[in-house]
Amino acid sequence: MRRAFWGLGLPVLLQVACGGGTPDGRTPGRPLPPYTGQAVELFDDGLEPNAVGYPLEQGAAPMTDNRLRERTQTGDAVVRARVVTVTSKQEDQGRSWQIGMHTLERLAGTGPLEQDFTVTVPSTAPAAGIVHAFEGKLIGSTFVAFVREFERPRAPGDSDLHFHLAVDSKDEVQAVKSAVLLDQVR
Fold this sequence. Notes:
globular
């Protein structure tokens, strides 16, 4: 019996210890939703202009923002994070950026998210223009990051991390904490 356990358990243990799963080391180990519908609107790979000091338009106050509440309640994690690296590369579809982030504080969510994580901004993402304009200036900036892992289309077993970056403010953080409490009451 013990030999049967080790025979079956060791490969699983090795896969977990060696970071098997997705190319970036995340191991879903859970069914992941497709990146479609409402999820595309919530985790839009966007960066709010006011988060980089460019108030484009006056949106809803964080405490009354239904999308903030829904992002908080459906995301894998909501964290305060600092940008540590921004790299870009030219691809067939245009330029893309990888933003390396370091978690300062977890505000919500129980899903997997490493302390240091990377989000990808393709040229077609809502954040592309802002990242292109502020590229090097983003390093050291802090944001409230709403993140969720989704199944990669046409690649079963692989996943992509999608996000929305908001201003790191007292009002934003308080709204996230309130959304968590509302979710617990339901």
